[in-house]
Structure formats: structure tokens, C-alpha cells
Design brief:
By secondary structure, the protein is of the alpha/beta class. The chain is 49% helix and 14% strand. The strands form two sheets. Strands 4-3-5 form a three-stranded parallel β-sheet, sandwiched between helices. Strand 1 and strand 2 form a beta hairpin. The relative contact order is 0.17.
């Protein structure tokens, strides 16, 4: 039995790599592609944050939103979903309460994640090996 969604995705990326994992109207990813995007996005997120930092994530109701939330979890961050086009007052209120200044929104997807998706979905034979699922002994 899996202890988290991340662990299940990692295991599926090894045993069921080519099966469909997530999809929206513009993009579909198999488990291998999903895992690679999670790890790539987490490596970018991990550079600017400390473990257990809160990160506001705009709910874009697409594959990018799923990847961002799971990447936050993989990086040890706490994702806090925020409704799309939330009033600035709401965002400021959450930032004050949580002590964060970060908001990952649709703009990040339009600029960065499409390129990541393209890279992940391109030549599988040239992809670097990525580390496995991090397990914590209790």
C-alpha cells in the first residue's frame, strides 16, 4: 500500500510508465512524464524556498495545476490552492496569514511548464535518470 499520492505516482512511473496518468483538453501525460515533470518543477521550486514554506498556487483546473501541487509536495513545500483571478485583497490576506510572498499562477504555466512538457514528451532515450521517491523512516 502506498503512503502518499507521490509514492503511488513514482511506483506507477516504474511499473506502468506509459499508461495515462492525467489529462486536460490540451495536454495528457503518462506516469513517466508526470513523474519527470513533478521532479523537474520541484527542483526549480526547491531553490527559492525552505522546507515547509507555504506557496499559493492558482487553481487553473488543468494538468499544470496538478503538477505544481505535487511538485510543491515533493519539494517539501505546502501548496495552498487559490481560486483563479482571486481579488488581490484575498491573496494579500493569505500571504499575511501564512507568511508567504509566493504565488504560482497561470503565467508560470504559459512560460515555463509548456517547455518542460515538451522536453519531457520528446526523445525518451535521451532523458537523464531522475532520483527515486524520497522515503522517510519513521
Amino acid at each position: 500500500m502506498y503512503t502518499s499520492v507521490l509514492e503511488a505516482i513514482y511506483e506507477h512511473s516504474r511499473g506502468r510508465a506509459k499508461r495515462l496518468a492525467v489529462a486536460d483538453e490540451k495536454l495528457s501525460l503518462n506516469y513517466e512524464e508526470l513523474w519527470r515533470l513533478i521532479v523537474l518543477k520541484a527542483s526549480v521550486l526547491g531553490e527559492g524556498f525552505a522546507i515547509s514554506d507555504y506557496v499559493l498556487v492558482e487553481c487553473s483546473q488543468d494538468v499544470a495545476f496538478i503538477v505544481k501541487c505535487l511538485a510543491c509536495q515533493y519539494a517539501g513545500l505546502i501548496s495552498v490552492p487559490v481560486e483563479m483571478q482571486a481579488p488581490l485583497e484575498r491573496i494579500w490576506e493569505l500571504q499575511r496569514k501564512l507568511g508567504t510572498t509566493s504565488l504560482i499562477g497561470r503565467g508560470d504555466y504559459e512560460i515555463g511548464d509548456k517547455e518542460l512538457c515538451s522536453a519531457v514528451q520528446s526523445d525518451a532515450g535521451n532523458r537523464p535518470a531522475l532520483e527515486g521517491f524520497p522515503r522517510k523512516d519513521v
